[in-house]
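Your task:
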Amino acid sequence: MLSVQNLSLRYGKRVLFEDVNIRFTEGNCYGIIGANGAGKSTFLKILSGEIEPSTGKVEISKGQRMSVLKQNHYEFDNISVLETVMRGNTKLFEVMAAKDALYAKEDFSEEDGIKAGELEGIFAEMDGWNAESDAATLLSNLGIKEEFHGKLLKELDGNQKVRVLLAQALFGNPDILLLDEPTNDLDLETISWLENFLADYEKIVLVVSHDRHFLDTVCTAVADIDFGKISIFTGNYTFWYETSQLMLKQRSDQNKKAEDKIAELKEFIARFSANASKSKQATSRKKALDKIKLDEMKPSNRKYPAILFNNQVREAGDQILEVTDLTKSEHGELLFKNISFDVKRGQKIAILAENSLATTAFYKILVGETQADSGNFKWGVTITNTYLPNDNAEYFVGKKDNLIDWLRQYSEEKDETFIRGFLGRMLFSGEETLKSCDVLSGGEKMRCMLSRMMMLKGNVLLMDEPTNHLDLESITALNNGMKDFRGTILFTTRDHELAQTVADRIIEITPNGIIDREMSFDEYRDDERVKALRAELYGALV
């Protein structure tokens, strides 16, 4: 068990947590949720002992081991990949090191022999003889091939390092596992493996993630950080979100009778309980939902930006986009070759590629920021496209405009009251609208870029990783806005939920051609013919 008692954390006048009392129990995975800046990562650091709270304490049941996903990617640079993983179980690694040091002594004494025997016993009890093979298996499951296991960590690229550090956190089945954004830089196959691993994990897991599908798959409860308090709610993220929205609606419905509200809540819980039976955690989640007390369900204080794209300059005609034999290389690497397809009005197309440089180059060609090596494309005469790049630095670096002046340049309506109102709906209120553009956080910049996109009123949206830096509330609002958009969208995302709920067509671009299917994202992932074609196209690169 992991518990927090009377926890507070203050930075000067700013109170991040105040008198938090909470307990985490075995067999549960808790999704730590909260708006950007609420203190999700800070809370994990308090639990791990990296940050001392202002008041209160953290208690762990005797004999339990905590493991943390390291955020310092350079800490183990001069250590081999395999050893880095095994260092995740500190006690086991210390026993190994002490044992090896004894055997390495030139004057090995009888006393050393007794000590070595004791260590060997402890080592065996900790399943130390399987440590290397277990570490190697973890690495392989996370996409680190055996040829890299003996290399120094500094010899790996950034994405590989993230996977090694994740393997380190998972190694040895810790009793308490703290994971801060564990899906960052993982591909879909590796995320799927991690989802299955955590869904079957019987210890205590606390995870911070902006990936809603991941949270829904692995979490039995959410710990919501709001107004300096932390409240635990049974169910996954979607259950928490829909609960909070239902409660908000009920709170505003003054005329509805109490018994009608209770009946509506019971029906809502029953529906989610039935759906829970399809999950990996069917039994525990369904039992937990069935035991929910209605008075525990409360509306959230969270605010969602108003992301609405339907105010278009003009309605698009039937001719949207025609792409013919596009080919592009960068720095001697072939990104894609002979890409051809037509886009129909109203389609929402997820553009996939194993190499993110390929999708970014593809969008930049379509908006005229770069040239294809060969081939061409043609936009319909009625089309106004707007582009959301995955790197928006050029829009903000060195810009001293306040947010009002920055957004005004993209708006037909120049009146300050109108601009302020628009920014307010995007959660920039009061003095925040006077902030200088070059001091904005990543999430604030992305909300500005989405505001720009709405102002430009395009009837075709091009979106390259639109969820980057956004919190869960903004991602949810963006997801709804994209679903409701009556125009055409081409988008690339690593957000499973966004791809599944928005896309009605999938186009995957590879150096050897494309795969083009009118189906949902999940259907695409599960389609055996698609899998065979992917293996053929990517296998041809070997």
Summary: Residues 335 and 358 are 5 Å apart (CA to CA). The radius of gyration is 26 Å.
